[in-house]
Amino acid sequence: MSTIAAGRSKPSRTTSFVPELVYFEPAALDYPKGRRIMDWVRDSGIPYRMTTSHNRITNLPGETETEQYKIAKRTLVVGIRKTLTFDTSKPSAEYAIPIATGCMGHCHYCYLQTTLGAKPYIRVYVNTDDILKAAKGYIDERAPEITRFEAACTSDPVGLEPITGSLRELIEFMADQPLGRLRFVTKFHTVDSLLDARHNGHTRIRFSVNDKYVINHFEPSTSRFEDRIEAAAKVARAGYPLGFIIAPIIWHDGWQEGYAELLASLAQALPEEALPGLTFELIQHRFTKTAKNVIEKRYPKTKLEMDIAKRKYKWGRWGQGKYVYPDEQAEALRLFISERIFEHFPDANIEYFT
What we know:
The chain is globular. The protein has a single domain (81-353), classed as Alpha-Beta Horseshoe (pyruvate-formate lyase- activating enzyme). β4 and β5 (93-96) form a beta hairpin. It is built from 11 helices and 15 strands. The strands form 3 sheets. It has an 8-stranded mixed sheet with strand order 4-5-8-9-10-11-12-15, covered by helices on one side. Strands 2-1-3-7-6 form a 5-stranded mixed sheet, with helices on one face. The longest helix is centred in the C-terminal third of the chain and has 18 residues, at 327-344. The two termini are 35 Å apart. By secondary structure, the protein is an alpha/beta fold.
C-alpha cells in the first residue's frame, strides 16, 4: 500500500486505521508531510480541527469517560516533536526513536493504558528530519559501537504507515548508517509500502504474536494472526531481518496447547527466507496497581487475570514495581515456549525472557 508521505497516491479508507477526527497543530502545516496529511484528510472528508497544542484538546465527544476514551482512540493529532532527547529502550534497543505516540488497538493489557493517561489519542510527528538528525547525534556519540533504535515504544507505527510514511524514511536513513540499526514491532499487517524500501539489512521488523486465546480475548482492533504472519513472510522475502515477540505470555487453561499451536503455525507459514537470523523475545504478563484499575474501568468485562494474590512483586528500574508470575510459573512458561521454539526453529535466537 502506498503512502501519502512518499508523495505517491493517497491512502483510501481501506487503510488499517482511518481516524474519525483529526487535529492539526498549526506548525505541522509548515512541513511537507503535514500538508500532505491535510490534503488526504480533506480529500477523504474526515472532520478536522486546528489546535494550538495537543495538551489543549479537552472537548472530545462522548457523554462518559468510557465513550470519550473509545473516540480518542479514533482521533489523530498531527504535530511536531519538540523534545528530541530520546528515552532509553532496554532490553530491546539503546534508544526509543519517537515518530508517533498512541495506538489504535484496544489490547486490554497494554502499558500505554497508563502511560498515556487521559489522552489516549494518536499523535504523529511530521518533523522527521529533526528526529533523524537527533538520531545521527546518538549514533556518533556511541561510535564505534552500534546503536539500536526502537520505533514502537509508544505506538504501533505500522498501523499508521499508510498515513505518515515515517517508517520508510527511518528505514532508508538507517540503511546509510554503518553504526545505526532500526527495530520496530507491530500487530498490524500494512507493510506493503516498506517492501521495496532500501534497508541494507539494518532494520529488523518484528511481529507481536500470541496464542488464539490471548488474541481472541485481549487484542481487539488489531490485525488477525493470519494477516500478521502473511505480512511477516512478505518482509522476510524482501530481505529484512525478522523477529517475533511473544507477549504478553499469559498463564491460562490450555496455555501449553495454545503456545505449542502458535509455534507450529509459525513454522508452517514462514518461508525459508525468514529462518536465518530469526529472533524471539519473550515477555510474561505483568501489570501495576494503576494499570489494573485503569484496565478494569475501561474494559469492565475483560477476562484478563490480574489477581495480586497470585502474583510476585518485581521492582523495576525506576523504583516502580510490577506484578509478574511467581518464579515457578514464570520458569515453566519460559522452558516450555523456549523448547517449542527450538523444536521448530533450531537456529533461532531467544534474545531475552522477562
